[in-house]
């Protein structure tokens, strides 16, 4: 049989050991290791700046270049004005607000004046009838007479007919019944001028006569069969529209008797009307003398 012939590795190692001693091999290993380290350091040193530059490029914000607006040409004719300040910008708004406020105040004043005018017109319509017709060359007189706190057409007409003359025109329908029922007549008769001037009476007539009739009843003793006596009194005043002059006044008194108050009143009324018609004190001349 043939034997397998294997190389003698032990003999080869021994021969190499003799050719290259151990000390020489260790020096060679150390030299190779140092060279490798130096080479690695050089590679790392060369790569590090490239990595830092790339990292900065990644971290830096990306900006896109865009062309800016062209520079305007500035000249003496089209020089750009400086921007307006906040106060200048608010000035037109403040002026507009002031104008609006003034317009609103004016409208409110106009509306208030119209309301007052309308209210005054309603006031006139309640107490004053249509304006009397004036005649050229004459004075206008208004007569207002009351009886038992009501307008008395009877005494108003009697006084008007007594005073009618070519120089004096008399009106018997200047005021309404509300002038008496609302108390304006009583205040005017007592001397207040606000009632007549507030109704613009001086614009309608030259003078006003106010007459107030009152009646007092008394019962006679049984010896006279209980006859009732009526004492009727008519007071007439001519209040001035202005000034402090004395108020002209006239007074008429008449009595009547009867078994009933109505009969006594009618008798006193008839006698009073006759007195007015025949009176010589309350005449057109005395009225005209007191008209300014």
Explained architecture:
Helices cover 50% and strands 16% of the residues. With 292 residues, it is of the alpha/beta class. Helix 4 runs parallel beside helix 9 (261-278). A 5-stranded mixed beta sheet has the order 2-1-3-4-5. Residues 1-7 and 9-14 have low confidence and may be disordered. It has a domain at 126-289: Double Stranded RNA Binding Domain, CATH 3.30.160. The protein is rod-shaped. It contains 10 helices and 5 strands, in the order H-H-H-E-H-E-H-H-H-H-E-E-E-H-H. The protein has helices at residues 9-19, 22-59, 86-127, 153-163, 178-181, 184-189, 194-198, 201-204, 261-278, 284-289, and strands at 139-147, 168-171, 207-219, 228-237, 249-258.
Q: What is the CATH domain class of the domain at 126-289?
A: Alpha Beta
Coarse shape: rod-shaped
Query: Describe the biggest sheet?
Result: 5 strands, mixed
Quaternary organisation: single chain
Topology as a string of helices (H) and strands (E) = HHHEHEHHHHEEEHH
Query: What proportion of the residues form beta strands (DSSP E)?
Result: 15-25%
Main-sheet strand order equals: 2-1-3-4-5
Radius of gyration: 64 Å
**Helix coverage percent:** 40-55%
Question: What tags apply to this protein structure?
Answer:
Double Stranded RNA Binding Domain, rod-shaped, 5 strands, 16% strand, 10 helices, 292 residues, alpha/beta, 50% helix
Quick rundown:
The chain is an alpha/beta fold and 292 residues long. 50% of the residues lie in helices and 16% in strands. It has a domain at 126-289: 2-Layer Sandwich (Double Stranded RNA Binding Domain), CATH 3.30.160.
């Amino acid at each position: 049989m043939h034997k397998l012939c294997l190389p003698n590795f032990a003999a080869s190692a021994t021969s190499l050991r003799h050719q290259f001693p151990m000390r020489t091999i260790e020096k060679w290993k150390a030299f190779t290791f140092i060279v490798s380290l130096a080479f690695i350091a050089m590679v790392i040193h060369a790569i590090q700046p490239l990595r830092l530059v790339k990292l900065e490029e990644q971290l830096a914000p990306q900006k896109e270049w865009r062309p800016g607006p062209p520079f305007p040409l500035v000249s003496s004719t089209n020089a750009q004005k400086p921007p307006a300040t906040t106060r200048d910008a608010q000035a037109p708004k403040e002026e507009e607000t002031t104008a609006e406020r003034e317009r609103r105040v004016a409208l409110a004043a106009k509306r208030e004046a119209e309301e007052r005018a309308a209210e005054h017109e309603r006031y006139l319509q309640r107490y004053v009838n249509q304006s009397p017709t004036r005649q050229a060359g004459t004075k206008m007189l208004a007569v207002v007479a009351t009886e038992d706190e009501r307008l008395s057409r009877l005494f108003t007409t009697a006084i008007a007919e007594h005073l009618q003359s070519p120089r004096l025109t008399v009106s018997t329908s200047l005021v309404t019944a509300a002038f008496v029922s609302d108390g304006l007549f009583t205040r005017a008769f007592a001397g207040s001028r606000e009632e007549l001037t507030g109704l613009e009476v001086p614009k309608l007539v030259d003078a006003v006569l106010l007459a107030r009739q009152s009646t007092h009843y008394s019962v006679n003793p049984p010896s006279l069969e209980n006859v009732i006596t009526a004492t009727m009194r008519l007071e007439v005043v001519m209040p001035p529209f202005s000034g402090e002059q004395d108020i002209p006044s006239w007074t008429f008194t008449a009595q009547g008797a009867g078994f009933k108050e109505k009969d006594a009143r009618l008798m006193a009324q008839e006698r009073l009307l006759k007195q007015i018609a025949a009176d010589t004190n309350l005449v057109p001349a005395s009225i005209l003398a007191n008209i300014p």
